[in-house]
Design brief:
The complex is a heterodimer of chains A (543) and B (156).
Chain A (H helix, E strand, L loop, with lengths): L3 E6 L2 E6 L4 H7 L23 E4 L6 E2 L10 E3 L3 H16 L15 H9 L17 E2 L4 E3 L9 H9 L5 E4 L6 E4 L12 H5 L5 E3 L11 E7 L8 E7 L11 E6 L12 H4 L15 E4 L2 E4 L2 H18 L5 E4 L6 H14 L5 E4 L21 H7 L4 E2 H9 L5 E5 L9 H9 L3 E6 L4 H5 L2 E4 L8 E4 L4 E5 L12 H11 L9 H11 L16 E2 L10
Parallel strand pairs in A: 1-5, 16-17, 16-19, 17-18, 19-20, 20-21
Antiparallel strand pairs in A: 1-2, 3-4, 3-5, 6-7, 7-10, 8-9, 11-12, 12-13, 14-15, 14-21, 22-23, 23-24
Helix pairs in contact in A: 2-3, 7-13, 8-13, 8-14, 10-11
Chain B lengths: L5 H12 L8 H12 L4 H11 L3 H10 L11 E6 L2 H5 L2 H12 L5 E2 L5 E6 L11 E3 L2 E3 L4 H9 L3
Parallel strand pairs in B: 1-3
Antiparallel strand pairs in B: 1-4, 2-3, 4-5
Helix pairs in contact in B: 1-2, 2-3, 3-4
Classes of the chains: A alpha/beta (543), B alpha+beta (156).
């Protein structure tokens, strides 16, 4: 435990670890001191002067972002002097600000707007023309710069220097001529560049992808976990609360990082950030389908489940459980994996189960956040199906004619298996069921297609590569007739008369904790917004 | 585009070896580079950035901050006119207007014969003798249009 000191902020007694800055100590007590240049994930520069506060026995106002707490310190954040300072800082910042809020994407989540309404509210005293600068300058594939809106807080510059160490951005020239820019002939193009739009407290750096798509006050926000790799970065899903299919073509508009010091700090990668497009992609599966002759025909859930259950019952009765096989996926949640385990393995006695598949071509990681394993729950799958085989071997078994029923969760086998040979192998199987969210060559080879929800449309947990169990929440409903995998499995279990109890994610998580020792200390409630470690995470992060 | 000469590179390497961090030698290195070419091109910034273990934009920040470091070719005589408050009160505007007329160029421009470059700069730190201008490394104080004519006539 680090040594702690006690101090008073606005009359509140506060204890804070030694070395904490006054601004952070105040935040933990619910006192938000306005600031621009300070960001908890970046080095402190103390340049914006917005966070100045009064400290007893110190003659001048002090920057709370750069003043460490001290024993007996008495801080006042709202004295007339501190408030007057905020007004003055805002007046200078807005002196050359273009006030183009009506066409600015930042409007609604802008540090200038918010603080002006709280602390500014002065009448302009400037008769002079505002300075003109470059507007709408594309800095790279994802970021647009507006130099007139910039307040030179340098958060973005520090991000490229201290976090990505790519150093693309700089403050050029001096005084009122200062601007942010890249070096001539270069671009802001690194795997984490989207974060500078989140960092920017004003509308100077905006996301080219989000520009002019939706006003931020129409967005709802739900906490979630990025399913793009085994890091499991904590994110927020921002969706259009007023979505109307007549006028809008997407429900989810953007993903934002959600701070979690144990997993992703304050950041996410661009690959994960822009993967939100897959949620409302045109190739989503929305309606169940059945093979009739050479093609797939749309069907009702009753028909589709009936056909799959009938085929499976026939195989189990006629050939025995050895002729049925299941491919589970590290894209599935722990609860879905557990329900699949209970249905296929425990109730129906199927032990031909595969899970691991070769990585997609070109999948790579780095030494920061991005992992080469592009699945969110490989660790959870390994815990719930420790004996699961390799998917390639299972395809070989199909080709060898030993499998009569195959239930594929999510895998697109054509990504790592020759498509021609795959078609031949699956033709050997009497009934191939594909349960997944997107159309693929594998879905088109199936006899029964069951459209499933994606992570943004359901709740559940993933275990990241470090062993952290993290919860995600539904932001939008599944499209069309699609259902969550838990609902689909419950319907299949009911049709097979194999029992369907406990098909809520919360209930299943409780059962996982009861059956799988690594999950034993955890409860659905205890996971909280940023997750908990497994009993033996196998790293330095033990609880 | 020409890079640094071998002798300039050597001088810069010797300079940066004197400091615990190479970047400490950045400003004198830029001066060496400017001595050679008269200005500091983007190529030179990239070259010096590599030598100092900095990003090119960190070097450009310094070059763009100091009015004595140039990013474009400049004339033989660089005339920097202060237009900050003390000079302003002593008619720096008139001084600048006279120079514009006499040289036929505005601030930031260079005469076609590459003899003069005119720049408007912030305080030169000689408020007591305003208005002030600086030609290359020398100050010229208590200026009047007549005095400027006299100074320019004396330049080759």
């Amino acid at each position: 435990m680090p040594e702690s000191v006690s101090l008073t902020i606005d009359g509140q007694e506060i204890r804070a670890p030694k070395g904490t800055m006054v601004l952070e100590a105040a935040r933990t007590a619910g006192i938000l001191i306005p600031h621009y240049c300070y960001h908890p994930g970046l080095p402190v520069v103390g340049s914006c002067r917005m966070c100045l506060v009064e400290i007893e026995k110190v003659p001048k106002l002090q920057p709370s972002c750069a003043t460490p707490v001290a024993e007996g310190m008495v801080v006042r954040t709202t004295t007339p002097q501190a408030l007057e300072n905020r007004r003055s800082v805002l007046e200078f910042l807005l002196a050359n600000h273009p006030l183009d809020c009506p066409v600015c994407d930042q409007a609604g989540e802008c540090g200038l707007q918010d603080y002006y309404m709280e602390h500014g509210r002065y009448d302009a005293r400037h008769d002079e023309d505002k300075t003109r600068r470059k507007k709408a300058v594309p800095l790279g594939p994802h970021i647009m710069l507006d130099q007139e809106r910039c307040i030179l807080c340098t958060r973005c510059v520090r991000f490229t220097r201290d976090i990505t160490r790519t150093g693309e951005l700089g403050v050029l020239s001096r005084g009122h001529r200062s601007v942010i820019d890249v070096f001539p002939g270069t671009t802001l193009d690194n795997p984490y560049s989207g974060n500078v739009a989140d960092l920017c407290p004003v509308g100077a750096l905006t996301d080219r992808d989000f520009r002019f798509q939706c006003r931020v006050w129409f967005l709802g926000s739900v906490p979630s976990i990025c399913p793009g790799c085994s890091r499991g970065c904590n994110i927020e899903i921002h969706y259009n609360r007023r979505f109307d299919p007549r006028y809008h073509d997407r429900r989810v508009h953007r993903l934002k990082p959600r701070p979690n010091p144990e997993v992703n700090g304050f950041w996410i990668c661009d690959e994960g950030r822009y993967a939100y497009r897959t949620i409302d992609a045109a190739d989503r599966l929305k309606i169940p389908a059945l093979r009739r002759g050479d093609g797939l025909r749309e069907a009702s859930w009753a028909e589709a489940i009936g056909e799959a259950a009938g085929a499976l019952r026939g195989v189990l009765g006629g050939n025995g459980p050895g002729a049925a096989a299941v491919m589970v996926s590290p894209q599935m949640s722990n609860e879905e994996l557990f329900l699949a385990r209970r249905l296929f393995r425990d109730r129906l006695g199927i032990d031909r189960i595969a899970g691991r598949a070769p990585a997609a071509a070109g999948a790579s990681g780095d030494d920061f956040l991005i992992r080469a394993d592009k699945n969110p729950n490989t660790r959870g799958m390994d815990l719930l199906f420790p004996d699961a085989g390799d998917c390639r071997d299972l395809v070989e078994s199909c080709a060898g004619g030993r499998i009569r029923y195959l239930h594929i969760f999510r895998h697109d086998l054509s990504r790592w298996y020759d498509p021609g040979r795959l078609a031949e192998a699956l033709r050997e199987v009497d009934c191939v069921v594909f349960e997944g969210s997107w159309d693929s060559p594998t879905a088109r080879l199936a006899d029964v297609v069951l459209p499933a929800a994606v992570y943004a449309e359901k709740e559940g947990t993933f275990v990241n590569f470090q062993g952290r169990v993290q919860r995600f929440y539904p932001a939008v409903p599944p499209p069309g007739a699609a259902l969550t995998d838990l609902d689909i499995l419950a319907r299949l279990a009911a049709a097979l008369e194999a029992g369907a109890a406990g098909s809520t994610a919360a209930g299943l998580f409780g059962e996982i904790a009861a059956h799988v020792p690594e999950f034993a200390p955890l409860t659905w409630q205890s996971l909280g917004p940023t997750g908990r470690w497994l009993a033996n995470p196998g790293n330095d992060h033990a609880v | 585009m020409q890079g640094l000469s071998p002798s300039a590179r050597l001088r810069i390497e010797e300079l940066s070896a004197r400091y615990p961090r190479k970047r400490s030698a950045l400003i004198p290195s830029l001066q060496i580079a400017q001595e050679e070419a008269g200005y500091i091109s983007e190529e030179i910034m990239v070259e010096i950035a590599r030598m100092m273990e900095l990003s090119p934009n960190e070097v450009r920040e310094v070059v763009s901050f100091y009015s004595l470091l140039h990013q474009k070719p400049v004339g033989r005589y660089v005339i920097q006119v202060c237009t900050n408050i003390s000079c302003q009160l002593c008619d720096a505007e008139g001084i600048l207007r006279h120079l514009r007329r006499r040289l036929g160029i505005g601030p930031g421009e260079t005469t076609p014969d590459m003899k003069y470059t005119l720049l408007e700069v912030e305080c030169l730190g000689s408020c007591g003798t305003s208005p002030v201008m600086q030609i290359n490394d020398e100050y010229h104080e208590n200026l009047t249009p007549e005095k400027i004519d006299c100074i320019l006539d004396g330049l080759q």
